[in-house]
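User: What would this chain look like folded?
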Amino acid sequence: MTDSQSNAGTRHTVVVPASINMVALLGPSDEHLRLIEDAFGADVHVRGNQITFQGEPGEVALMERLLDELVALLRTGQGISTETVERVIGMLRAETSERPADVLSLNILSNRGRTIRPKTLNQKRYVDSIDKHTITFGIGPAGTGKTYLAMAKAVQALQAKEATRIILTRPAVEAGERLGYLPGTLSEKIDPYLRPLYDALHDMLDPETIPKLLAAGTIEVAPLAYMRGRTLNDAFIILDEAQNTSPEQMKMFLTRLGFGSKIVVTGDVTQIDLPSGVRSGLRIVEGILDGVEDVVFNRLTSHDVVRHKLVGRIVAAYDEFDATQESGGVSRRVERRGDRA
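Assistant: Here's the prediction, encoded as structure tokens.
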């Protein structure tokens, strides 16, 4: 590799190892290359397996690190997409201690040719917390993978015989837990609330094995009300949509913990569907359990959304709107009282 200085900034040439497929590295029709040029405001020239960066010294140094990370990912056998390049750039700019290649190459679960991995630094920290702690909270907006990754860890634990069963639960809050008023059998009444959990299971296990595991009780999917009075040993337990629990329900659930078990609690405090006047158990639990050993809270943000990139922008826009509403709340209340006067 060579360096030189000019009025146009630093010029730096890197030789890509011969074992690396340049098309995989640069993308179809050089789309990764164009993305890098736009992201760093620099000129990038390719000749054979030599890549020359020209721009501001700091940006050129980041581009070299980016290239190292992309090469490391390709060496693991993992493909690279424009989304991968964007995520690596974001991590490098955040100046984290973890290498992006280590974050993006962590395999949690593989099934039918599909591998589930964390896609952001916060997701990897969340997954690591599940490994290290007995009770883990994953709090964040829709699309951040908090439930999906927890379920992948649960299936991984079952396959590794670290747990003898998986218990998945969520509150059926829209029915106020009073399911008797709905038509149909009990199974038909609760199914709409539990369907997202079944959908995730089908991504992680062979579909023909799921009915057998459910029938044997190895996997249990049930509304939160069914947890009362039980002690759950040797289980991986996930409470989803925890923002819709009352403080009493949250306490009831957490105290179901038995020997050899792990609990993961997931929720989004911006999407509470509880009746007016009912506090969310997820909102207050961190203040209660803060400092309790072996309990950890992980927060994911709009930057961790792994659905369509527009979802992340929508979440960020709503966060900004909510912050504006809260900061202006006092003046609006005064205005309303003035109007009534």
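The chain is about 45% helix and 20% strand. If you want, I can go into more detail on any region.
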